[in-house]
Specification:
Layout (H helix, E strand, L loop, with lengths): L8 H27 L8 E3 L5 E3 L7 E7 L4 H17 L4 E7 L5 H10 L5 E4 L4 H5 L8 E5 L5 E6 L4 H13 L1
Parallel strand pairs: 3-4, 4-5
Antiparallel strand pairs: 1-2, 3-6, 6-7
């Protein structure tokens, strides 16, 4: 017949203390993994004109990197507002790189950029390396806002709330 043992009051206190420490450690780890700002990857964008733009050359500026495709209806819908956002903040130091994803046809990208007179840099990610560097971006549109220090301030999947985006840009550009 098994003998039942109940922990002593002192043993129960130690078990509760140990449980509290474990819960606290998990909470702290979770907090920092969720809210720690990650650095944007070191990449080289190749624009439609062949210009090489490195992420290092953009340091010290607030940058929006927008992954998009001509076949993406949400991307096409949001693009006029992206243009308005860029035009509103470019004189305050905003840089913008629209990255057409690898499955998009280069001639479609070139045609869209030219016929819409996109005012910012448009890059083509032919091999998908830039998308992979940004956390394997597969959904479009996906937009990253990168701070002057090179940290990712915000990642939007889908069309952003432009009023909130503008507030975020104003804050980032002011620092």
């Amino acid at each position: 017949m098994p003998i039942e043992t109940t922990p002593t009051p002192r043993g129960r206190i130690w078990m509760k203390a140990l449980a509290a420490v474990i819960v606290l450690a998990i909470a702290v780890t979770g907090y920092f993994s969720l809210f720690a700002q990650k650095s944007a990857p070191d990449v080289t964008f190749t624009s439609l004109t062949g210009e090489k733009i490195t992420s290092q050359s953009l340091r010290g500026k607030v940058v929006m990197v927008n992954f998009w495709a001509t076949s993406c209806t949400t991307c096409i819908h949001e693009m006029p507002q992206m243009v308005e956002t860029y035009n509103k903040y470019k004189d305050k130091g905003l840089e913008f790189v629209a990255v057409a994803v690898s499955y998009d046809a280069p001639n479609y990208v070139m045609n869209y950029a030219q016929t819409r007179n996109l005012p910012f840099k448009v890059a083509y990610d032919a091999q998908g390396d830039v998308a992979k560097s940004f956390g394997n971006v597969t959904l479009t549109p996906t937009t990253f806002v990168i701070g002057k220090d090179g940290s990712v301030i915000k990642r939007y999947v889908g069309e952003p709330d432009f009023a909130a985006l503008h507030q975020l840009l104003e804050k980032a550009l002011a620092t």
